[in-house]
Amino acid sequence: MKNKALTAALSSAVAVTLLAGCGSGTASGTGQEATADTAAAEETAEAETEEDAPQEEIDYGTGEIKVWVADNAVDFTNQQIKAFQEANPDFSGYSMVVEATGEGDAAGNMITDVEAGADIYVFAQDQIARLVSAGALEEVAPENVEAVKAANDAGAVAAATVGDILYAYPLTSDNGYFMYYDKSVVKDPSDLDAILADCEAAGKSFYMEINSGWYQTAFFFGTGCTLSYETDNDGNFTAANVDYASDAGVVALKEMIHLNNSPAFVNGSSVGAADAAKMAAIVDGTWDAQAAKDALGDNYACAKLPSFKGADGKTYQLSGFSGYKLLGVKPQEDEGKLMVCDALAQFLSGGEVQLARYESVGWGPSNLEVQKSEKVMADEALTALNEQMLNDVPQGQYPGDYWTLATGLGDSVINGEISDKTSDADLLAKLQEFQDTCISYAK
C-alpha cells in the first residue's frame, strides 16, 4: 500500500519538475525564486498525490495463532492479547490461543516439531542458535528492528541476535542469579567464607548448584576465565573461546572444592526444593523471589554474589551469566499471518506491556525506560540482580553438549573424584580435558 502510493507520488513529482524546468526559462525574477517555486510545487504535488492515492486494504487472512508462555503468565498474556485485538480490528480473522509452555521447554518442543509448535513463544536466550538452525525463528520484521534495538538494553539485544541478524524480541533482563539470605544468620553477605562460617555456626545451609553449567561459571568467570562460542547467521557454531586450562581455572576449581568441603554446603538452586528451616543463603534467581520471601519472612534479604579469597591469596568476585527471556516468531507460509504475528510480538514485548508484566508476574524488564520506573527500582531482588549483572558475562549461545559436560565437571567435585588432595597438575589435566572437549563442539 505504501509502496504504491510512494511510486505514484514520485512519478507525479518528476512530471511537475519537468514542467517547472520548461517554464523557468521565461520566468521573471532570479533563478533562486524559480527554484523555490519548483520545490514548492513538487512538495504540494507529492502531498496531494499521497492523499489522493487509493488506500489498498490488506487481507491478513484467517486462522489461529498459538502463543506459548510460562504457566504463571498465561492469564496475563490472555488479558494483553484481548487488548491487542480490541485495538486492531483488522486482525479479527485470527483467534489467539495461549498455552502454558515454559521458556525452558519451548525450544526443545519447537525443534522436535516446528510445524506443530507455537507461532509465537517465549524462550531462554541460550536456545536461540538451536532455534535458528532448526528453522524455528523468523527474523524480526525489518521495520521493527531499529525500534527494538533502541528500546531495550544492550545485553538483551545481543542475546536476541545471531551473527548480525535480530531474530527475537527482547522480553526480560532478569535471567541471572544472585543471593537470597537470612539476615539474622548471615552478617556479611559480601564474603563467601564469612557466609559459610555463619551458616556452620548456626547449623544452617548455603545452597548453590555447582554441577550446573550455568551457576558453575560464577567461579571461572570470577577468576577471569573465558568460555564463549561464535556462531554464523544460521546459528552454526564456528569457534570456541575457552581458557579454563590455566592458573585462573585451577583457582576457580579449587574454590568449588573448598565450598563442597563445607558442612553447610548443599548443592541446589531452588528455594522450593530447599529445606526452608535450614536454608540461610541460596544462589537463585528472581523467579523464586516470592518463595524466598515466604521462606525467610522478616529476615528476607538479597545481595549480589559474594567474593572469595582464592588459593593464590587473591580476592575474586563471583561472576556468572546474565540471561534474558526472548519472544520468538515462527516462520509462516502466509504473509498476512506473519504480519499479524509480528505485530502481536512487538506489542507483547513493548515497554507498556513489560511494565504491566512486571507488576503482574514479576518479570524484570529489558526495556530501558521501564527499568528506570519507581516500582522496578524499589524491587529488592531486581536491585541485587542488577548489581550482580555489572560483574557478569552476557550469556551467548552454547552447544547442548556443553551443559552435560559442565554437569560432569561439577559432579567430579561433589562425588570426591577431585578434592583438596588432588594435585595442581591433575586439576589442570582435568581442566585441559574439559577445555579440549568444549573446543571440539565448534569443529
Low-confidence stretches: 1-36
What is the H level of CATH, i.e. the homologous superfamily of the largest domain? Periplasmic binding protein-like II
- What general form does the structure show? globular
| Second CATH tier, the architecture of the largest domain | 3-Layer(aba) Sandwich
Round the mean pLDDT to the nearest integer and report it: 88
| Number of alpha- plus pi-helical segments | 18
What Rg do the Cα atoms give?
A: 28 Å
Query: Number of domains in the coordinates?
Result: 2
Question: In this structure, how is the largest beta sheet organized?
Answer: 5 strands, mixed
Question: Structural class, from helix and strand content?
Answer: alpha/beta
- Count of extended strands: 18
**Amount of beta strand:** 15-25%
Fraction of residues in H or I helices: 40-55%
Trace the largest sheet across and list its strands. Answer: 2-1-3-17-6
Cα end-to-end separation: 47 Å
CATH overall fold name of the largest domain: D-Maltodextrin-Binding Protein, domain 2
CATH class of the largest domain: Alpha Beta
In short:
The protein contains 18 helices and 18 strands. With about 450 residues, the chain is α/β, with parallel strands linked by helices. A five-stranded mixed sheet has the order 2-1-3-17-6. A five-stranded mixed sheet has the order 11-8-12-7-13. Strands 4-5 form a two-stranded antiparallel ribbon.
